[in-house]
Amino acid sequence: MDMKTDRIHLKAPGNWINDPNGFIYYKGMYHLFYQYFPYAPQWGTMHWGHAVSRDLVNWEHYGIALFPTKYEDQNGCFSGSAVENDGKLYLYYTGVHYDEIDSDNIHKCPENKFESAQMMICSKDGFSFDNFNGKKVIIPAVMDKKIADRTHTRDPKVWHGKDAWYMVIGSKTEDDRGQLLFYRSKDLMEWELANRVSKETTFGWMWECPDLFKTEGGNVLVLSPMGILKDGKREENHAVCMPVGFDEDTCTVEFSENFQFVDYGLDLYAPQSTIDEDGRRVLIGWMRMPEAVDGNWNGMFCIPRVVERKNTHIYFRVHPSIEQMYTCRINSPIEADEVGYKLVLDLKEGEMLDIGGYKIYRKENRICTDRTDVFAGHMDCRVKLETPEINEGYHLDIYVEKNLIEIFINNGEYVLSNVVYNLGEELYTELSGGLQIYTLDKK
Ligand code: FRU
């Protein structure tokens, strides 16, 4: 069995990964599945890859958990989630079946014509999945356009509410607005449509990977709307979050007009959350990469982030199990562990730092970045990014690794993360205050 390991950031074990799926703390371990194309470093017929961790820091890859076996998932096992019941692990996902096969490439769907069904598979231990006999179609493709789209209805997220199980699915309306479908179940097998919700004003034409959860500060909705940012750059789909009201009895959502990007680097997409072993809400997202690294792997995940809501603002803080790893003080990035290092500083107006070609600076109240020199010429992507205006405090915790820089501003008030290529080892700063560099403790 493939026993590749990762530390801090989970990466494609080769070839291609996209969304995190089925993230759960189950029987003393974190299980993290992911959209996986095991044959080439590009998107194709989706499988679920599987990785396991005891601490959210060290990950062990367990190969393929789900693969196409049925009519309904013959062309892919799309995204979904996991819950535990009676000691068993239940996975929910979307099975896709293409209307036609492209004889030149069976892994891509011609003209996006396909059917989506919601499926389930149960495992007694979280490691064995009977792909041949254990799958069940729980919600067949919706054929009534007035209700939902037969193609664009996917990514079930399941949770236990007050006295029933709930599922939210991403979808679209007939007039191309993002839509959520809510289903309810008593037994995790039979599901009944409880409500459909959408925003009146257009906010993307389809909502992928919805995630709705309670925090101490109120409910949070995370979505990946398609076509939300059309500025001529390569990615139009982006992960957003917003404070919402949610009534379980009716499955109605009270939307707010304000939304935040989950990450202002605009590379993070399709995040998914779960509850960690200490009851925190922890979220992981896919970092989209325009090019495979060394020509052989594409796709990695961000650092696990703790989600908190205070009034109407949503914070994404570095998970403490990651934070506590960076305790070894060093003088220069050259001394860092190969997994990377962390910079801690306050950035004043007019100051800047250059991390091996990646530039971070202040423009009035915003933190800005420029990856022009470390992005392998991908100028069709966004290379200059910035946060919204920040009211006060410009404290930065910057986690640096070979292909990813994650900037946590004011302990997660905003996060800006960017994928990079061929980052240099040199560090140049123009700072008036102190700068601390930490790497992981040698183990
Ligand atoms: C988001 C997404 C999901 C879908 C999966 C397919 O990136 O498009 O909506 O289930 O990826 O790989």
Q: What does this entry look like structurally?
A:
The mean pLDDT is 97. This protein is mainly beta and 443 residues long. It is 1% helix and 50% strand. The protein has two domains: 5-321, 5 Propeller (Tachylectin-2, Chain A), CATH 2.115.10; 325-440, Jelly Rolls. It contains one helix and 35 strands. Bound molecules: beta-D-fructofuranose.
What characteristics describe this protein?
443 residues, mainly beta, Tachylectin-2, Chain A, Jelly Rolls, 2 domains, six-stranded mixed β-sheet, six-stranded antiparallel β-sheet, 1 helix, 35 strands, 1% helix, 50% strand, globular, binds beta-D-fructofuranose
Instruction: Specify the helix fraction band.
Output: under 10%
How many DSSP H or I helices? 1
CATH class of the largest domain: Mainly Beta
Q: What topology, given as strand order, has the largest sheet? A: 1-5-4-3-2-21
Q: Which topology of the largest domain does CATH recognise? A: Tachylectin-2, Chain A
Averaged pLDDT? 97
Q: What compounds sit in this structure?
A: beta-D-fructofuranose
Label the overall shape.
globular
How many structural domains are formed by the residues?
2
Largest sheet: 6 strands, mixed
Weakly predicted, low-confidence segments: none
Query: What is the CATH-assigned architecture of the largest domain?
Result: 5 Propeller
Tell me the CATH superfamily of the largest domain. Answer: Glycosyl hydrolase domain, family 43
What is the CA-CA span between the terminal residues? 25 Å
Strand content: over 45%
The structure class reads mainly beta
Q: Give the radius of gyration.
A: 21 Å
Strand tally is 35
